[in-house]
């Protein structure tokens, strides 16, 4: 397979650069194959380009056979033997969760050395209470996701082009290196269909090759980050790969829908996909929840909670799950038409996360707002819908936002906005414009 030069992920690289030489461990988390290892290489390259000598940089990938099964003590010895105590060292540890008690070694480096530390991990257990205890809050988490739509275009070698349209003013198009112009919609459809895993840029839009690569991502997540990790962790073991896959398929098929461990177990049993205990009753909710927790820890699914706008508190009622990459969903369920509304919702959710928002579902009386997006002093109420053309759809999507009486920004994001860009102070934005802001 043809290898590409490292492409920059400026959104994340700039965050790392901003924390350079600060007394915190930079922890990069995210689903496997989303680009964490490349980000470490990009940061190391930035250091070299800005005067840091090669001898000051140590890079370790713990999935390499050279460092496989390295112990905490061996890691400590290796770093000390290859460091110059007279210089500041820059330490890069990729997939460090493979080292038992790694946090003890990292804490020791911070205490005993003049160093700047960058680590990656594919599991949220990386930031468990053990890490917090050893590092006493001296770390910053940088959450990494698969490619955004703008990154997707860049990785595939296309650029955004603005052209003057006699009917619609300036419009965005996509162009290739030979001057060919394409519509944005067909690329967005490819993005939603195949997903944003960076490695897919190496195979173009060949569906068969993409499926092979996504199978590798799925297998790596399930085997290394769930089945193997649970045994190593020593807590409740995830020992039933068949049950795990059934739950994955259920969640993938129900992104953006209200679900719980109880409802998942009951539905699987009702559909004959899961045996009931003793031939009757429901499967153990605790078992289903343990499997779901592992999937969210492995960053394949993200849970979003409900927030009561009037009561200003989070609710314990049903939440929703979104999948880290829509390409993985289509690989698991088959490339099929339909459900485009939920896929758009999934895409907007992760774009909000990329932009640094904390996101919740909004409860406004008996109505529901798709997303409340908050950061610092900023708050947005957001509805997502495929089309605003039908009057009944328009009324349904606007009603929850109209019921909220505060002055924060209210937005509807849609693929087909119609002619009106605003109604009663509520902005109606084209989804593609929003994604390419």
Please explain how this structure is put together:
With 437 residues, the protein is an alpha/beta fold. Helices cover 39% and strands 24% of the residues. The chain has 15 helices and 16 strands. It has helices at 10-18, 36-49, 72-81, 102-112, 129-135, 149-155, 184-194, 207-233, 241-253, 261-270, 285-297, 326-333, 340-354, 391-402, 431-435, and strands at residues 25-29, 57-61, 89-94, 115-121, 139-143, 159-165, 169-175, 181-182, 301-308, 313-323, 358-364, 367-375, 378-387, 409-416, 422-423, 426-430. The strands form three sheets. The chain has an eight-stranded mixed sheet, sandwiched between helices. Strands 2-3-4-1-5 form a five-stranded parallel sheet, sandwiched between helices. α14 links the parallel β13 and β14. The protein is globular and about 70 Å long. The mean pLDDT is 88.
């Amino acid at each position: 397979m043809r290898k590409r030069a490292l492409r920059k992920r400026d959104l994340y690289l700039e965050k790392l650069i901003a924390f350079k030489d600060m007394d915190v461990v930079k922890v990069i988390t995210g689903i496997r194959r989303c680009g964490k290892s490349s980000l470490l290489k990009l940061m190391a390259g930035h250091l070299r380009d800005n005067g840091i000598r090669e001898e000051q940089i140590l890079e370790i990938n713990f999935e390499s056979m050279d460092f496989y099964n390295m112990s905490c003590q061996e890691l400590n010895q290796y770093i000390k033997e290859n460091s110059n105590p007279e210089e500041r060292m820059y330490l890069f540890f990729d997939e460090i969760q493979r080292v038992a008690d790694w946090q003890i070694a990292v804490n020791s480096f911070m205490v005993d050395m003049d160093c700047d530390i960058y680590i990656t991990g594919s599991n949220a257990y990386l930031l468990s209470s053990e890490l917090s205890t050893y590092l006493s809050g001296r770390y910053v988490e940088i959450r990494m996701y698969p490619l955004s739509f703008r990154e997707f275009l860049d990785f595939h070698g296309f650029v955004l082009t603005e052209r003057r349209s006699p009917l619609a003013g300036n419009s965005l198009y996509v162009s290739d290196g030979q001057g060919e112009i394409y519509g944005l919609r067909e690329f967005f459809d490819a993005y939603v269909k195949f997903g944003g895993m960076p490695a897919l840029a190496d195979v173009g839009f060949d569906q068969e090759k993409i499926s092979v690569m996504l199978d590798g991502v799925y297998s790596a997540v399930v085997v290394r980050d769930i089945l193997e990790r649970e045994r190593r962790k020593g807590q409740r073991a995830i020992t039933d790969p068949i049950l795990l896959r059934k739950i994955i398929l259920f969640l993938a098929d129900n992104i953006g829908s209200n679900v719980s461990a109880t409802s998942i177990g009951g539905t699987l049993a009702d559909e004959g996909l899961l045996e009931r205990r003793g031939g009757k009753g429901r499967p153990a909710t605790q078992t289903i929840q343990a499997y779901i927790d592992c999937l969210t820890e492995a960053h394949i699914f993200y849970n979003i909670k409900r927030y009561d706008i009037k009561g200003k508190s989070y609710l314990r009622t049903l939440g929703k799950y979104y999948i880290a990459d829509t390409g993985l969903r289509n690989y698991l369920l088959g490339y099929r038409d339909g459900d485009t509304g939920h896929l758009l919702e999934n895409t907007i959710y992760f774009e909000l996360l990329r932009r640094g928002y904390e996101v919740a579902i909004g409860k406004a009386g008996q109505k529901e707002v798709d997303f409340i997006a908050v950061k610092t002093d900023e708050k947005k109420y957001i509805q997502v819908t495929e089309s605003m053309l039908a009057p009944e759809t328009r009324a349904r999507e606007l009603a929850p936002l109209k019921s909220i009486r505060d002055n924060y920004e209210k937005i509807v994001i849609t693929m087909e906005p119609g002619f009106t860009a605003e109604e009663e102070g509520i902005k109606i934005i084209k989804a593609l414009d929003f994604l390419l802001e």
